[in-house]
């Protein structure tokens, strides 16, 4: 149970030497490799909401001059009017970004393939934790991003508190025999996700046991039917509704939870089918704030 907490302490001690805000240039590593800045960023463009919430958690959201403003997750609230809308999460407006003359652009998995084009405008930091090593890369990348702003201590505090909450949940799962299934609804279709998927947080970090280790670890999940759910018969189900997350019809959850086959499963019979906050889990997650909210939501579901 103490392994995550100890690992966090070791990681954060390793970066403590880089605490000086004035020490420039500074080089850190993102999901691709080295990122070097000659000074602390003053004008930042974020291409996603996780990036924005990390900066907000670190107390430097005021540096953001450009961000997406479509389907903003409820936990973000309003992004200040003076922040320029730079387009959608998948298709940012490169011309609008260039006009802002940023000194840092923070991208993510949805926009990582644009990094080479974006680097013609400004240095790019890609915040994309590896789903096979989620905790290690989540903490390393968010700490590296904090280092660029001279905010290592703030990141250290945040991550240490996260580790303590995680260990509480993990301890419960270590003594539990329950098997869990993570699902995503999308316009009437159902996809299942396993240990190394975009929802690796549940399995790798929080210690939930997958109901079926053979579930495909693709980004979009493995197609699943109600018959399939009953066949694997999970003790606990978590799910999100992608359609609702992106502003579509939000009635899918009602249809899902009332399905007769679902109600015959162990999870259905025992009232352990939990709808997670869809926009939080689908549109964000790898930021300091969104990650904490996800962990807290899981903790509350277990009370």
Keywords:
about 300 residues, Rossmann fold, alpha/beta, about 15% strand, five-stranded parallel beta sheet, 2 domains, 14 helices, six-stranded mixed beta sheet, globular
What does this protein look like?
The chain is of the alpha/beta class. The protein is built from 14 helices and 13 strands. The protein folds into two domains: 15-151, Rossmann fold, CATH 3.40.50; 163-301, Rossmann fold (3-Layer(aba) Sandwich), CATH 3.40.50. The protein has helices spanning 3-15, 49-58, 94-100, 115-118, 134-148, 152-174, 200-205, 226-232, 242-245, 252-257, 260-264, 266-269, 278-283, 288-301, and strands spanning 26-29, 34-37, 44-46, 64-67, 84-85, 104-107, 124-126, 179-186, 189-193, 209-210, 222-224, 236-241, 273-275. The strands form three sheets. Strands 8, 9, 10, 11, 12 and 13 form a six-stranded mixed β-sheet that branches. A five-stranded parallel β-sheet has the order 5-4-3-6-7, sandwiched between helices. It is globular. The two termini are 19 Å apart.
């Amino acid at each position: 149970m103490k392994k995550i907490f100890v690992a966090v302490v070791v990681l954060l001690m390793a970066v403590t030497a880089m605490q000086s805000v004035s020490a420039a240039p500074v080089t850190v590593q993102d999901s691709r490799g080295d990122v070097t800045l000659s000074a602390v960023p003053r004008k930042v463009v974020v291409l996603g909401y996780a990036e924005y919430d990390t900066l907000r958690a670190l107390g430097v959201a005021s540096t953001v001059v450009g961000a997406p403003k479509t389907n903003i997750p409820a936990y973000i609230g309003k992004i200040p009017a003076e922040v320029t809308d730079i387009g959608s999460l998948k298709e940012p407006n490169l011309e609008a970004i260039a006009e802002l003359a940023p000194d840092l652009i923070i991208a993510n998995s949805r926009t990582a393939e644009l990094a080479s084009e974006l680097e013609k405008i400004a240095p790019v930091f890609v915040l994309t934790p590896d789903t096979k090593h989620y905790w290690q890369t989540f903490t390393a990348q968010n700490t590296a991003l904090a280092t660029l702003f001279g905010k290592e201590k703030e990141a250290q505090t945040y991550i240490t508190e996260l580790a303590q909450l995680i260990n509480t949940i993990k301890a419960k799962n270590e003594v539990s025999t329950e098997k869990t299934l993570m699902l995503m609804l999308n316009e009437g279709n159902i996809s299942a996700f396993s240990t190394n998927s975009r929802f690796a947080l549940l399995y790798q970090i929080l210690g939930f046991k997958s109901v079926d280790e053979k579930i495909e670890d693709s980004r979009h999940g493995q197609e699943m039917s109600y018959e399939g759910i009953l066949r694997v018969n999970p003790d606990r189900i978590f799910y999100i509704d992608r359609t609702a997350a992106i502003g579509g019809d939000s009635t899918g959850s009602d249809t899902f939870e009332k399905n007769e086959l679902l109600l015959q499963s162990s999870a259905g019979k025992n009232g352990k089918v939990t709808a997670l906050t869809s926009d939080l889990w689908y549109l964000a997650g790898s930021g300091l704030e969104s990650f904490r909210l996800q962990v807290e939501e899981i903790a509350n579901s277990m009370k």
